[in-house]
Amino acid sequence: MTDDHTLSVQGVTLGYGDRTVVTDLDLAVPPGSITAIVGANACGKSTLLRSMARLLAPREGRVLLDGKDLHRLPTREVARVLGLLPQSPVAPEGIAVADLVSRGRHPHQRVLARWSGKDDEAVASALEVTGTTELADRSVDELSGGQRQRVWIAMALAQETDVLLLDEPTTFLDVAHQVDVLDLLTELNRERGTTVVMVLHDLNLAARYADHLVAVREGRLHAAGPPAEVLTATVVEEVFGMRSHVVPDPVSGAPMVLPIGRHHARGLVEAEA
Questions:
Q1: In 3D, which of 96, 85, 237, 72 has the Cα closest to residue 161?
Q2: Do 36 and 233 form a contact (C-beta atoms < 8 A)?
Q3: Which of 28, 98, 166, 251 could lock onto 136 through a cystine, CB 3.0 to 4.6 A?
Q4: For the chain, how many structural domains are there in total?
Q5: Residues 261, 265, 268, 270: is their CA dihedral positive or negative?
Q6: What's the pLDDT tens digit per position in 81-130?
Q7: Where residue 64 sits, what CATH number does that domain have?
Q8: pLDDT at residue 267 is higher than 70
Q9: Neighbouring residues of 258: CB distance < 8 A, sequence distance ≥ 6
Q10: Contact 120, 91 (CB under 8 A)
């Protein structure tokens, strides 16, 4: 198990240029748990995660790692604790898979220190658990979108941080690989105690895999807590503007959202009449 590092957001306001995206938001990430951030497009989910990853400084408020201002801590110190998989990472042209994954070890390297057996083990393990070992010698440029996404996840895993932030980790993946990736993150959490925070679009996968659900609406925290408390028909309509039925997931027992489209909504109205 890892140490329970704490990560929290206090009164944070975020934006780009003249545009404010997140306003006066407070959030405490439960240590050693899986947190999923959900919300409509352009509501501020990724912007919030970027600030938690120290990529975007708050206009107001603070992001705290173990009680200290994240944006004032030394970069290498932060990188040993907190890993990030951004939404659209870009690999250096022509780089091989193994070389890219190896870059996850940089925070653990000291000046003039040699590459160690521990570094080799971390890279090999990351490749194995993401099913990318056979791709090690191939150029990242040659890979499919799904393969490339798994390689980026391998790099984040090779960093061996206690807190892992992921922005849409299932992007470009088919359903089977989406489940594989989320199962992998669950295993990391359960076996290593890794705190996972991820932005997800799929509400049902978020509810199934997260211990803690955060719903963001128009740049503000709308609801937070266990999925069964957060994911209600009322919250779904308020956050996504979509009518739905919420029923128990027959596999996990977590709440499962069944959208009601306009055609079916008319049918319900007619039936109720």
A1: 85
A2: no
A3: 98
A4: 1
A5: negative
A6: 999 998 878 899 999 999 999 998 876 555 445 667 888 898 999 999 88
A7: 3.40.50.300
A8: no
A9: 244, 245, 246, 247
A10: no
